[in-house]
User: Fold this.
Amino acid sequence: MLDIKFIRENPDLVREALQKRQFSEPIDEILLLDVKHREKLLDLENLRHARKEAARAVSELRDTTIEDATRVGPGLRIRIKTLEQEAKAIDEELNDLLLRIPNIPHPSVPIGKDEGDNIVVRSWGEARKFDFPPKPHWELGESLGIIDFERGAKLSGTRFYVLKGLGAHLQRALISFMLDLHIKEHGYTEMYPPFMVKRECMVGSGNLPKFADNLYHDEEDDFWFVPTAEVPLTNLHRDEILPPGTLPLYYVAYTPCFRREKMSAGKDTRGIKRGHQFDKVELYKFVAPEISDEELEKMVDNAEEVCRRLGIPYRVLALCTGDLGFASTKSYDIEMWAPGCGEWLEVSSCSNCGDFQARRANIRFRPQSGAKPQFVHTLNGSGLALPRVLISLLENYQQPDGSIVIPEALRPYTGFEVIK
Assistant:
């Protein structure tokens, strides 16, 4: 959430930032509501002062009679109650609009309209040269008996699948490998959060109210299924003031993720690239504002290390203003090469959200003992996301006979070296 004071003092800057992001939120309406709300609060303050003076006059029998003062008191109470209701209604409308405004892009973010304007900042590894036509993962998975699309659709419908035998084992091995890497070598603390959260958690992370249509919701208990572990990790310290010396905090968590995938008919319908349910290892940081830019670069490198250990070619893209996530001020995407599909697949998006989420979730810290609390900066990134890592692994390590060689880094987790 943007600070209303910042919007009030920099309306043109905010309008320009939203234009760069391809957003058209009603800044003029927000500013008008802000004026009305402050006027109502001033009127309330004056009426409460008048009521206090009337009460004092009754007690002191000063400048009026008891009859006059007691006649004024009830009228003031009614006017105050009415004004309080009006101020509350304006505040709720203003807050709802503020919750729908995205974050301001960092000055270093390239300006662009959509993903076509993202910039490749570096790449690693060379694409394997095959002496046979590489197959896509859906053919490999079915021929090896490790992916069952028919039974996935029978159980849950389109965009669902079942991983079988060594396929399920391989997925589990990838998750364990990534968690261990980030915990043992990158200094993250593992968390195992709930997969359903309260409404305020979705608001705090920036998913509500803007993206309600993309989320799965249990209406009876008002539980929301997490679209990513970013949601519960953001809210671990909601409404807290972290004491001096606490920051930085590094968390890593595995969760399944649930999202309504709304795409054009026929787009990405083959295979396991897009689904309503998928697994992900999530990286999350709470840091002091002055080091958040540096911490983002470290997070990206942590995610890249997974790709390097697996020996799969990848590239890193700086997202342009038109492709930034709602809460992000700056983001990088990591894409792995999938030779069977013939495309780059996004396996991670690492973002610095500044104090955007911290304001929504009221997460602050004290720099020193006795110092005024400040909002923390939050960062998140996939480290990495399945099933696209699984896709890239199957397609890059396929052999002429259709078997799959397991990367050396994963063999301690699988216990086998090849899937035949």
